[in-house]
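queue> pop job 88
queue> type: inverse folding (structure -> sequence)
queue> payload:
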């Protein structure tokens, strides 16, 4: 649930990017960071090793519009895709206000996408969060790959439960639909 600070007149939302290892979660945040004016965002913090893209998480704070005198802030996080970091995933998901599930469109990554989504559902449940009540957007990333599976298959595999969620084709490395996914997140309760 969003945090409202009446003293500082700020409303803060926590958005977490989830998905498979090397699926494009960090690339999404890097693209967003590179395109937002410095006075509207903080530094992109990545805790990574030379072999793993994300060891603990990535974090990007964004300041946006003022509504009724309250500044709106979005805290964007990624969680590691690797199974061995499941405890970290659960910790980062505490207090989440919305999810962007970044799936890898490569044919050989379908099982990993499905397992990652199932793990996300379990981790949310372990945190007492009912996934059906949480804003969630699917981003079908890496659509620029030659072996990208059809979107209809991704929809069948990942986005087949009620309520049906908003989804976007994307290529985070070029920025294609990265911001559309963010905007879609705001209207993803169907």
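queue> result:
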């Amino acid at each position: 649930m969003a945090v409202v600070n009446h003293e500082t007149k700020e409303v803060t939302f926590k958005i977490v990017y989830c998905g498979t290892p090397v699926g494009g979660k960090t690339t999404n945040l890097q693209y967003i960071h590179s395109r937002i004016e410095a006075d509207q965002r903080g530094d992109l913090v990545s805790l990574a090793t030379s072999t793993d893209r994300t060891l603990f998480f990535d974090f990007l704070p964004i300041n946006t519009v003022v509504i009724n005198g309250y500044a709106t802030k979005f805290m964007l996080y990624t969680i590691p895709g690797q199974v061995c970091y499941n405890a970290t995933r659960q910790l980062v998901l505490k207090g989440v206000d919305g999810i962007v599930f970044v799936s890898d469109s490569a044919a050989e990554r379908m099982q990993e996408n499905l397992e990652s989504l199932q793990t996300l559902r379990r981790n949310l449940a372990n945190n007492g969060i009912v996934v059906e009540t949480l804003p969630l957007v699917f981003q079908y990333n890496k659509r620029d790959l030659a072996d990208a599976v059809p979107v209809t298959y991704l929809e069948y595999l990942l986005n087949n439960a009620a309520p049906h969620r908003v989804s976007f084709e994307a290529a985070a490395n070029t920025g294609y639909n990265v911001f559309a996914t963010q905007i879609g997140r705001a209207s993803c309760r169907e």
